[in-house]
Amino acid sequence: MSLVWKGVMPAVTTKFTQNDELDLDMFQTNIKAQLDAGVEGIILGGTLGEASTLSPKEKSILVKETVILANGSVPTIINIAEQTTKGAIDTAHIAEKDGAQGLMLLPPMRYKADSRETITYFSEIAKNTSLPIMLYNNPIDYGIEITLDMLDELTPHNNIQAVKESTRDISNVTRIRNRFGSRYSILTGVDTLGMESLLMGADGWVAGLVCAFPRETVAIYKLIKANRIEEALKIYRWFLPLLELDVSTKLVQNIKLAEVHTGIGTENVRAPRLPLAGKERERVLAIIEEGLRTRPTLPNYKSI
User: Fold this and answer.
1) Angle at 151 between CA 148 and CA 155, to 5 degrees
2) Does the pLDDT of residue 2 top 80, yes or no?
3) Architecture of 7-297 per CATH?
């Protein structure tokens, strides 16, 4: 499958049973909802996917299951967040064997690598896999910024094709485009800057609240790309209080609670995470319930 880095690509949550095992039935329900809504890729094992808590076997199961569910309609992409270059290369090899069609790649975990080390890390992985790669630029959460100069040094690697832009600096979309033209696809990774980034020229949206509201997320993307800005803005303004649930240390719990209320998920998380409780849960639930009460009627966005 040829991977085109565009459109809405959900960073899906990992579904667990109450016995802390993979809940493949609910996982299937959610993935089908994403595909039905018109997403253009499925990303597994990101922050929302509770990647740091998953075993290699569980990651393989999720990749294989998603490949079957997608059935060639959209690419299956797995996130790589490893501490060592060797570990990252091994993970890429396993992903390729399992049928993944792309990788989302974070800088080294735990150790704060400098620019030379980070470039070498990305380069070695790129040289050791045939899979297309999207670099994940999130210095706020992960401590290492992928600068424009670093991207410049990585341009010889043809399979490094995209950047998930999560610096929270909206101008960075324009900076990347001005410097590199179409060399790198740009996908926004911050829900609360989703529409703004697309208007600045981003090619796609690696989204979080899409896990609970897939149709609304894809509708915004499709309307913007069709230059139907007012229609997109109306939905986006409704969506913003929900999108803000993604910009939180409890984003996994927040979004899983939203998935429960749209019928495509459960609240089960893997310890040390715990489901929301008390006033915190009441606050998030009030936002979700208000969003559902005022949920907009969508245009026939699939025909755009």
Assistant:
1) 140
2) no
3) Alpha-Beta Barrel (3.20)
Q: Coil, helix or strand for 59?
A: helix
Give the up-direction half-sphere exposure of residue 115: CA atoms within 13 A in the CB hemisphere: 10
pLDDT in tens, 108-157: 998 899 999 999 999 999 999 999 999 999 998 888 999 999 999 999 99
> Residue 89 above 90 pLDDT?
yes
Is-contact 269 252, C-beta < 8 A? yes
Distances (CA, A) of 238 to 13, 49, 151, 250, 287: 23, 25, 36, 21, 11
Q: How confident is the model at residue 1 (pLDDT cuts 50, 70, 90)?
A: low
Q: Which residues contact 297 (CB under 8 A, 6 or more apart)?
A: none
Do residues 115 and 81 make contact, with C-beta atoms less than 8 angstroms apart? no
In contact, 115 and 80? CB cutoff 8 Å: no
**Rounded CA separation 248/233 (Å):** 23
Element (H, E) at 132: none
Region of residue 72 (left: phi > 0; alpha: psi -120 to 50; beta: else): left
* Amino acid 110: pLDDT: 84
User: In this structure, how many other beta carbons lie within 10 angstroms of the beta carbon of residue 282?
Assistant: 10
Q: Which residues are catalytic?
A: 136, 164
Q: Distance between the two ends of the chain, CA-based, in angstroms?
A: 24
- With contact defined as beta carbons under 8 Å apart, do 82 and 91 qualify? yes
Which pLDDT tens digit goes with each residue over 152-185?
999 999 999 999 999 999 999 999 999 999 999 9
Distance between CA 55 and CA 57 in Å, rounded?
Answer: 5
Q: Is 39 annotated as a binding residue?
A: no
